[in-house]
Design brief:
This protein is of the alpha+beta class and 223 residues long. The chain is built from six helices and six strands; from the N terminus they run H-H-H-H-E-H-E-E-H-E-E-E. A hairpin with a 2-residue loop joins strand 2 and strand 3. Helix 3 packs antiparallel against helix 4 and helix 4 packs across helix 6 (175-183). The termini are far apart. Residues 128-185 form the PDZ domain.
Length: 223
């Protein structure tokens, strides 16, 4: 392979330098920055998997013939480098999720403290009842059949009042929904909805154990 061809190949399969730089700095990131980085890492992984799929190759497919020679029907060097990058990014993503969980716990601990304090800062004690929010802040624009949202009987055009401890006053442009969902993967989340003028309560369990993508299988848009 000529030097220019090798250089072009390296440019096509290497991890984007700006993404690599942000990954190196992730331990100093705030939660919102981690969520953006998570999306970008997943996009890079999806791009790599698309290249493998185009060549009919998976992460464990053999790259040599039965008699030990490199396969001639695929780009062995490109695939090898992509597989290496995929494994690196998966490790980075796992580290990111662990870091996110730590920050999520801190975030929701602070939220819980605030909800149990009065305006003057005194603790309200155990006598208080949970606030029942009634103002919707988002709506459901899509629900995938068989998804966790579908199983929770969440429907298109439902208006979201609260999910877990996230509501109209603290959803932060819907970012806190993603935080709550990640933190409660495979755990039940209480959800309050407005449908046809009536408030409904259901239980949603974010999960990856279904045939589609994501933890919810629905699209949520801000009102």
């Amino acid at each position: 392979m000529e030097e220019k061809e090798l250089s072009d190949l390296l440019a096509n399969v290497k991890i984007d330098p700006s993404l690599a730089s942000r990954i190196d700095q992730m331990d100093d990131f705030k939660l919102a920055e981690l969520m953006v980085l998570k999306t970008d890492i997943e996009a890079q992984l999806e791009a790599y998997f698309s290249v493998l799929k185009e060549q009919g190759i998976g992460m464990d497919s053999a790259l040599v013939t039965p008699d030990g020679y490199p396969r001639s029907d695929v780009d062995v060097l490109q695939i090898t480098m992509i597989r290496k990058n995929v494994n690196m990014l998966k490790n980075d993503l796992n580290h990111l999720l662990q870091r996110s969980h730590v920050l999520l716990n801190l975030h929701f601990d602070r939220m819980n403290v605030k909800t149990h304090q009065t305006v003057d800062g005194n603790d309200r004690g155990d006598e208080d009842r949970p606030i029942q929010y009634t103002i919707p802040f988002a709506f459901i624009s899509e629900v995938v059949a068989g998804s966790p949202s579908d199983k929770a009987d969440i429907q298109v055009d439902d208006k979201l009042i609260s999910i877990g401890s996230v509501h109209a006053a603290n959803h932060s442009k819907l970012q806190n929904i993603q935080m709550a969902v990640i933190k409660n993967e495979d755990k039940s989340l209480p959800v309050r909805l407005l449908r046809d003028g009536k408030i409904l309560t259901t239980s949603l369990t974010p999960s990856r154990n279904w045939d589609g993508r994501g933890l919810l299988g629905c699209r949520i848009q801000e009102l």
